[in-house]
Amino acid sequence: MLREMKTFNLGWLLFAAVLLISALPFSQASRSKQHKVKTGVFRSPQFVLGPGSVANKLFSNIDFPRGHIALKSFDAEVVDESGNPIPLYDTYLHHWLVLKFYIRKGLENQDISKLNNSDYISGRNSGICQDGALDQFFGLGSETRRTKTRIPDPYGIEIGNPTKIPSGFVETWGLNVHAIDTRGVEDRTGCTECRCNLYNVTKEEDGTPLSPNYDGGLSCCYDGTKCRLKDGFIGIERNLYLQYTVKWIDMNSLIVPVNIYIFDVSDTWKKSRNSTEINSEHNCQVEYQVESCRATGSANDKCIDAKSVSLEMPFGGYLVYGVAHQHAGGTGSALYGKDGRSLCSSIPIYGTGEEAGNENGYIVGMSTCYPKPGTKKISKGETLILESNYSSIKQHTGVMGLFYILVAETLA
Questions:
Q1: Which residue positions does the secretion signal occupy (predicted)?
Q2: DSSP letters for 359-373
Q3: Could you give the CA distance from residue 345 to residue 387 in angstroms, rounded to a whole number?
Q4: 138 pLDDT more than 90
Q5: Mean pLDDT of the 125-154 span
Q6: Is the pLDDT of residue 277 over 70?
Q7: For residue 168, which phi and psi values (nearest 5 degrees)?
Q8: How far apart, in Å, are the Cα atoms of 21 and each of 25, 36, 411?
Q9: What is the C-alpha separation between 62 and 45, in angstroms, rounded?
Q10: Which residue has the higher pLDDT, 13 or 66?
Q11: Cα-trace Rg, the chain
Q12: pLDDT greater than 70 at residue 3
């Protein structure tokens, strides 16, 4: 009798366990099997910097995970030949961008900048800026070491889907790295803000004269320019690299794809008056200038430059992740939905020390948003408000007010 009871109890426990597992949306065993995260650590080709010099390079066909996969994170930092992290006060990482392209078969190992327009197609994010502006999949700047890029389960950025690759083309990846060597410079802040007088630049890279009102920004610190050094300073050139860590999982039916949207507070878009559909002309400026509150005669003791823009969402869905990108002087950015409801706010983390990742006075991280699934829904055509705030105690040139969000069209 006792043996029969033990057998019955054991059978009942096994049956209950089966019922419990089947009731869960994803069993732990299934998660482990279906969501095995793979990690790759890669390096860009080298770029050479001497004191005061600027590198703004586009590397084609970089090392990157291949196949039909879902990206889970992308983290990066500047290192030397031995892999040692380089602090921002030596080499300021203005930005890095990861871009997807479809290249005609047989040409994928070519320099993207030298190909004819018919030989490649941009695989840009889901919008909403005009083509050629903010096309990246991932991208950060000085804040890269302490900003989370993890995409929560069961979401991922789908790449390598053979049904979405144009016929006769292959999917490949490019990397833009913009770095400024500030060793021995006369004005570190001025160099990182790309002030034109410090670079002795009066024309853009293509030879176009600069606007008289343009005091600084990307047009004055392009590849090969040099920021003014202190008299008599001599320093060596260094071979540097962007070292990046990518995490991904094989694509499967349990993964919910997300779309990438990048908004720009300096976007001067116009919506067509004669259309009931979303039909807008976006003109993302990418950067803007913050004037000193003294220069503007502001009586605001806080001296905050608050810039905002209204934007329409071309598609709807659920917010999965959000983060802003600002430069030094930034005090925070926020994204609001219809009726002013908060979607995400992102605040700069300023360094307080000397070690890489905590450099005093530099933005070394941005806070991120991971809303509870289903709580932040964005409707198609909904008007969003983007705000970007900077301290205006002094002038800041070439600042940015970008906001990066991931949106899932359906819930997990």
A1: 1-29
A2: BBTSEEEE-EE-PPT
A3: 9
A4: yes
A5: 95
A6: no
A7: 85, 5
A8: 9, 20, 21
A9: 8
A10: 66
A11: 24
A12: no
pLDDT at residue 25 greater than cutoff 60 = no
Residue 135 and residue 179: Cα distance in Å, rounded? 19
User: Which residue is associated with the tokens 């879902």?
Assistant: 70
* Mean predicted lDDT score pLDDT of the chain: 90
pLDDT in tens, 370-391: 999 999 999 999 999 999 999 9
Ramachandran angles phi, psi of 401, nearest 5°: -135, 70
* Rounded Cα gap, residues 198 and 113, in angstroms: 28
Calpha distance 20→268 (Å, rounded): 54
Instruction: Specify the 3-state DSSP secondary structure of 228.
Output: coil
> Could you tell me the CA-to-CA distances from 374 to 258, 259, 371, 378, 409 in Å, in that order?
14, 16, 8, 10, 11
Q: Based on DSSP, count helices (H) and strands (E) in the chain, helices before strands.
A: 5, 26
- What's the rounded mean pLDDT across residues 58-73? 97
Helix (H) or strand (E) segment spanning residue 92:
strand 91-104
* DSSP letter assigned to residue 164: G
Rounded to whole angstroms, how far apart are CA atoms 13 and 148? 42
What mean pLDDT do residues 217-230 have? 98
Residue indicated by tokens 């919506």: 271
The whole-angstrom separation of Cα 122 and Cα 378 is 26
Q: What is the mean pLDDT of residues 354-367?
A: 98
Query: Residue 72 is which amino acid?
Result: K
pLDDT at 298: 65
CA–CA separation, 411 and 357 (whole Å): 35
* Residue 42 CA: distances (Å) to CA of 76, 246, 247, 280: 9, 8, 11, 39
Instruction: Give the pLDDT mean for 61-87.
Output: 97
Across 84-105, average pLDDT: 97
Cis peptide before 154 (omega within 30 of 0): yes
What pLDDT shows up at residue 271? 72
Please enumerate in sequence order all residues whose Cβ is within 8 A of that of 22, keeping only pairs 6 or more positions apart, or say none.
Answer: none
Q: How far apart are the first and last CA of the chain?
A: 48
Rounded Cα–Cα distance for residues 213 and 215 (Å): 6
